Protein 1
Amino acid sequence: MKTWWCYSGLPLVVGATLTVSSALAQTVDTARIEAAGQNDWLTYHGSYKSYHYSPLSQINAGNVGNLSVAWMHIPGRSTRGLQSMPVAADGVLYYSGSYSRVFALNGATGEVIWSYFPELDEALIARQTHSPYNRGVALGEGKVFVGTMDGRLFGLDAKTGKVLWETKLIDSQKLTVGFTGAPLYAKGTVIIGSQGGEWPGRGPIFAVDATTGKKKWEFLTVAGTDDAMKTWGNDSWRTGGGGGWMPGTYDSETNTVLWGTANPAPLYDWSGADFKTQGARPGDNLYTSSVIGLDLDTGKLKFYHQELPHDAWDFDSAVGEFVMLERDGQKYVVHPNKGGFVFVYDRNLAVKNVWPLVQNINFVKSIDPKTGELIGRRDFSVGKVTEMPLCPYIGGGISWNSGSYNPKTGLYYKLGQEWCMTLDIQKTTPVTTPQAQLNIGADFKMAPPPSGEIYGHLDARDPITGEKKWEVRYPEPPLGSVLSTAGNLVFVPDSRGILHAYDADNGAELWNHSDGTGHQGGIISYSANGKQYIAVTAGFGGMLSDDYAPNFGGVYKSMPRDDGALIVYSLK
Amino acid sequence: MKSSVKRIAALPVAVLAVSLSCVAAAQSPTPAPDSETFDVEQLFAGTCGFCHSEGGRAAGKGPQLMNTPRDDDFIRNRIKHGKQGAMPAFDGALTDSQIDQIVTYIRALKPRAG
């Protein structure tokens, strides 16, 4: 359906007319992010509710056929593609590229207002594996915040790009890791989590004063409390892991930061079933592969749920979405786990339900939907895993990018991935000097599921019960984020480079357009000068997309892995 | 069948040192003396295999290394200096003799039985 008509009852131009004049720009603060103004996209997840949803409806199911490219921006030096989620405030779009290059652009025209390229430790970056991509910035108090691969957090003037402060938070020379994820701003504080899962370290999450850049607190996701220390036998907390490399969110009602944490190291343990007492890291390994609630002011742990006690599969909880819902008077938080399950919690992270998004899961038989307990887990010993491949693949049944909840349809639109892996478990010793190296613990290879071929799918589901309303399949799993809008649309940027728009009610494809290269980053909608725009990052390459050429061939064989563009659409 | 060079004894490595106290040790610009066992297969399972699948026997994020047409100098150079956006540089982490052992491991790679 591509007829010309205006969505009945909905305004063509939603909200006040905006200009990009910084003189008219309002400060981005906690109340404004909480209110989730319809013209803006103020945090990585859109707002604290983490809906990845735009209330704008100028572009809608009736006219999306007239969507075309308004402008583009090339950030340059897009090593490992472009993986970030833009943000937008008062008609200005801010985004980051590889090497933490930051741009402020006129949201209506793409004109560069300012740019900032931090001087990075290039020799360090050349020795890093999960680098030099950057996944986004945060806005607050007239500043733009961005992390770097060499362990720093910057506060930039949102009007000029001038550095107001920079704070060194991690000794990346020693630990290898740095920051690739976007920060989160709340109540005068900037929160950012480090990389960590594959390296020896304690995976810190930091809070920094937004005004001064001074560190306020640090929470260690590996053995960060006395109780947690007891869950790492044989002092294995030293081999570490953890981290929180994707931004979580903030619950203002309880003044709590909600964050997901990464896996312990090595990824694959040789303990066998006796993982409480044997293997590389005997015990549950708190607070890895967990969701945690930290007091914003003190960093003290308030509550947590470990989604995968003693994660032996690298199916961690670092996915940043905490979708804040309310139904029948009950408040929920929905959080996807890399293993392919979606956890439903109350606001204190007590389990309310667990449902599988993907079909090919066999690292456990199931997860108890009432308690979250893992049932029939597979714990491996040294040697080749022979009985059946491990499902999902290390890329996850759910990857790190975000889905979208649409309050108008009540549906959660989320990408799932159906793939598995062969595995040969090895004993490893952590490499810690002169610089920490990866600690994987196995040789592995992508493999098709026992039931058939690899594929990906967009599901439209009830976020609480998991009931599926419709599904769209893709020959290769899409890796980008999903956007839904009040225009009854769902946008999916796929791996081949096609941006799709679907009818939010039934999944019918209404429009598509090639962005020229694969997607693995963010997509948002905002308004500038009274006009709605859709902005998507394109550019392939990195720790998961590098698997596509050898495994899928086709368009991936010639797809660049050092290129990218921000592409912005509007109605003709 | 495991690789015939599965365990290469009496070779370096600070990078594979068992001691965990080095987590807190000051960074050293050069690797420690070659005084401990260097296990290339373990190195692949820990680090290299993340990209070079099945211990280098199959293509993954990085190319298949078994039966590679590249010569030894190319492989040594790639391990030392990496490739921007694709492979890290290991010249600060591995000694020349360790890199030689990795080349030996790659040359001896055979398909695994079963």
Protein 2
Amino acid sequence: MNVTVAPDMKGTTGVLSRGRKLVVIGNGMAGCRAVEEILSRDGTRFDVTIFGAEPRVNYNRIMLSPVLAGEKTFEEIVINGQDWYDDNHIQLVSGDPVVGIDRQQKHVITRSGRIENYDTLLIATGSDPFIIPVPGKDLDGVVTFRDLDDVDKMLTAAEKGGSAVVIGGGLLGLEAAHGLSLRGMDVTVVHLMPTLMERQLDEAAGYLLKAELEKRGQTILTSANTKEIVGKDGKVSAVLLEDGTVIPAEIVVMAAGIRPATGLAKEAGLDVERGILVDDHMVTSDPDILAVGECVQHRGLCYGLVAPLWDMCRSLADYATDTPSGYGGSVTSTKLKVSGIDLFSAGDFTSGEDCEDIVMRDASRGIYKRVVVKDSKIVGAVLYGDTADGNWYFDLLKKEEDISDIREALIFGQAFASGGALLDPNAAVAALSDDAEICGCNGVSKGQVVSCINNGAHSLDAVRSTCKASASCGSCTGLVESLLAVTLGEDAVETGPKTMCKCTSFTHDDVRALILEKNLKAIPQVMQELHWSTPDGCSSCRPALNYYLLCAWPGEYIDDQKSRFVNERLHANIQKDGTYSVVPRMWGGITSPKELRAIADAAEKYQARLVKVTGGQRIDLFGIKKEDLPGIWADLNAAGMVSGHAYGKSLRTVKTCVGSEWCRFGTQDSTGLGVQIERMTWGSWMPHKFKIAVSGCPRNCAEATIKDFGVVCVDSGYELHVGGNGGIHVRATDLLCKVETEQEAMEHCAAFIQLYREDARYLERTAPWIERKGLDWLKEALFSDPNTVKELARRFRYSQRFSQDDPWAQRAGGDRADLHSHLAEVRPLQIISEVA
Amino acid sequence: MPVGKWLDVGTVDQIEPGTARTLPVEGREELAVFRTMRGEVFTIVNKCPHKQGPLSQGIVHGNVVACPLHNWNISLETGRALGDDDGCVPTIPTKVEGGRIFLLREAVLNPQVADAADEAPKAAA
């Protein structure tokens, strides 16, 4: 420390000792940047030796992706060539990694046995790729994506063509996949989480990214868990997933994440948690040892991006040159380096209670923007498709600027928010010229919208149905609303039918129509294309969308269990004490001694606290615990019984009377028909619960005239009744028609159900649906074309092919065991495991 | 991050994003460990402040769960009922390290509602 050297030593040679000895472990971006920062402050203070594991000079690791993609060469990504080391008298020892640190002797030792003394040691070992612990991980052909050697291995594999599997759909994995795909390989990305880049993106942006990558020919598998890497003659041949899928592969890239490389530090006895612990000056628990980069843990955080390295290196250099400043942690932003895909993410965008989301979606241009605001400050941003304002948002975020003045216009970007644009949206719309385009989808100008308003369209819905403005993607809804307010005055605007929920400006009917029209097949896709204002919906719209998609795309749409109410997820009815009730199906209300014995046994075995006969002619077992459900179902299944769907927005029961077989008044076999109808309709998902009854004569013992669909048998055939309800508002059925045969009764039942499934709003029973639409409408819809009944019935039967799978049997067989078991149990006296 | 002993209760991937799993504590309140669609993990007492509904079975949207019994929306971060409803369920400090979930032992054994001093004033209804 006391050795003073002449200030300008640059270019001189032959000086053995210029000052204190600084040894750097790691010739990567952090180590070299730290040295650069120190040299720029004081070029003479240290004698520097850098040890690098790789046999080459310092290069820009984050540019490996463009090298893999063929967009850059290695030479182009070199940061410091040999001349930098020479000019600064830095001794570079490459290809001979340090294997030990002796803190007593203050020296490091390399693999070849070389010993180097230090006064100050800087650890910049970076991170290691995380290798998922599956069988086959050590096979030839399994590579990571960390250094140039990895890139070379991938390029060699790509020359031969064939298939590649990339494990990990994060930043690194997607860049590797992009590179291999450009090099001509068939690439499959296997990602454990449901959303790509879930640490940086929300579900909506992840969906857009997935769709774009798929369009480019990559196969993207999300929620996919790798079980094994399969080899042949010691070489990779395929990847086997947990669900049994086998993906052939000549090369497997592990890009499942990184871990701070802390081995050396740990062995040397430094304090290490996830990373090497450092203070604000990058000093470890040993005051002579500093650490920087991806290997450190600062204030509880480890970073895997490049920007924090620069901040850390500045603080480190300030400290090492006796002008300590202190590093306060970094806010990070990410851009995906895949050409043609614009994606930006920064800060925290997990919506909190006191956070506010501002979301803008423009489906026609594939744009999704979301800015998260807390206490009038931006705390996070996700941009997809248009990232021009990314840096502006990031700047506002880092500076913690108060954005309340530009709040309204914030989402439209910097040009709009700070360019002196009119902030009152109504005034802005009023200022537009008459030929300004309002609705891009349908080419409607302001003048046309205004004249349509003046001609009597006094609500958003009326405007949509007359001139079509905002009727397609809905992104101009706000403009149309402003025009209504400007033209009629705020108070004169009529509010139309209620929107589906606060997440959207569309009604249930709009959403259903648009799902079909735009071929929307997944919840995140609906939310994106229809401009949802929340990132992942709410407890009102999620179940509704799940049903609409299920109804629209039978056999194709995969039911989203997490968008289902608890009863439909657990296939039992939740009770007010948190236990469940279980109702096995009794076809047409018919049971047998064997079934009753099995029910009695199950009731005792699982300690049902109440056994009750329901109004739907079956038996309800109350007080069953969540974790006992698969067990009780297995027992009931064993006696031949299946789920009664007493819990679902679905077909509940078909109630029957005994009919002509036993009853002296009976006119037809009502029980037989009831059983047939129940066999046809069970398991179907509906907008709401649906009850059927078949009475054998007009005395109507099965109460068919307060059911959603009721059959009353008469001598000459079958009267079909619809829209009855015995609930809060009792409503007797309307007579729909009379048919002559059982076959026709069945066909009409299927057609009526399908029409209800396709037309009614989610959570609308048949009674209010028919009151809303009118009986005439219903008859017209069913009977005006002689083929309609047949066609609707066909669609119903087709959809039933995919829904008549007993959910109890699936669960009893072990499916989704996680839904029924505890995560763990805590017993205070014998704690599972403890960490300090 | 609060100081104290942490209990390891399992791995993150045991919970599907957008759902929760239960964690009974002998002699104490049962807990619900949530993993949001975004992958964040939160723990709260598995009991709605309204009518004690099992929050673990609700629909999760954002960092909020809707109680399965009467659709009260409860913040997973603060345990507070949102909107016009009033009530609070205890939250348990939770951290994820190396893919494992850790809960603050003291809070598991003695769950407390979040400090009232932190409470943001509710907008007048």
